[in-house]
């Protein structure tokens, strides 16, 4: 029999208020697992949700702030198809659309610190999230990695030319 952590039992009690579709199931493939599932399209925690292990989400999590120690995205070749390299020229083109701005959200008062980022409607569509109101930071990182790799290749080529020009 699998043990369920005290944290999970407390969460079950918290979630069970107002939701009849909460259940816990043990999954054989992970050691000491407990899985909390909510069968609803809308799930709200008013104050704080603490999970000591892992949250799996098939759709989306929407919140103001997320604190985490380690955020991992599923990125295995096994979960992907139509894999192609990004042309560095495309990556440069996409990154040129990024206009870094500072702002406050409409529900924040003037005492709040400024936030730095991008405006979703002003960026290249390849950076937009699933709707035009969000951006995908993963896409930005991928384009940046392509540009950095290309710049490193160019720097090495220039260093070789410079070294050969300096040699007698």
**How many discrete structural domains?**
2
Helix percent band: 25-40%
What integer is the average pLDDT? 75
Radius of gyration: 23 Å
Total beta-strand segments = 4
Strand count, sense and barrel status of the largest sheet are: 2 strands, antiparallel
Largest beta sheet: what is the strand line-up?
Answer: 1-2
Q: Which terms would index this structure?
A:
single chain, two-stranded antiparallel ribbon, disordered N terminus, two-stranded antiparallel sheet, 8% strand, 30% helix, 168 residues, alpha+beta, extended, 3 helices
Structure report:
The termini are far apart. The chain is extended and about 70 Å long. The protein has 3 helices and 4 strands, in the order αββαββα. It has a two-stranded antiparallel ribbon. The N terminus is likely disordered. The chain has 2 domains: 72 residues, no CATH class; 86 residues, no CATH class. The protein is α+β, with helices and mostly antiparallel strands and 168 residues long. Helix content is 30%, strand content 8%.
Please summarize what this structure is.
This protein is α+β, with helices and mostly antiparallel strands. Helices cover 30% and strands 8% of the residues.
Summarize the SSE layout with pairings.
Blueprint (H helix, E strand, L loop, with lengths): L5 H11 L5 E4 L9 E4 L49 H9 L4 E3 L11 E3 L19 H30 L2
Helix pairs in contact: 2-3
């Amino acid at each position: 029999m699998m043990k369920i952590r005290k944290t999970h039992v407390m969460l079950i009690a918290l979630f069970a208020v107002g939701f009849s579709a909460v259940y816990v199931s043990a999954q054989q493939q992970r050691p000491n697992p407990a899985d909390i599932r909510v069968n609803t399209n809308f799930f709200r925690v008013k104050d704080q949700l603490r999970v000591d292990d892992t949250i799996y989400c098939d759709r989306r999590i929407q919140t103001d702030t997320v604190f985490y120690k380690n955020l991992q995205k599923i990125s295995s070749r096994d979960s992907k198809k139509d894999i192609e390299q990004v042309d560095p020229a495309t990556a440069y083109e996409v990154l040129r659309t990024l206009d870094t701005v500072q702002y406050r959200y409409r529900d924040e008062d003037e005492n709040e610190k400024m936030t730095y980022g991008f405006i979703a409607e002003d960026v290249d569509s390849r950076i937009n999230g699933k709707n035009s109101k969000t951006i995908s930071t993963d896409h930005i990182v991928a384009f940046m990695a392509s540009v950095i790799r290309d710049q490193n290749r160019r720097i090495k080529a220039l260093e070789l030319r410079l070294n050969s020009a300096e040699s007698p």
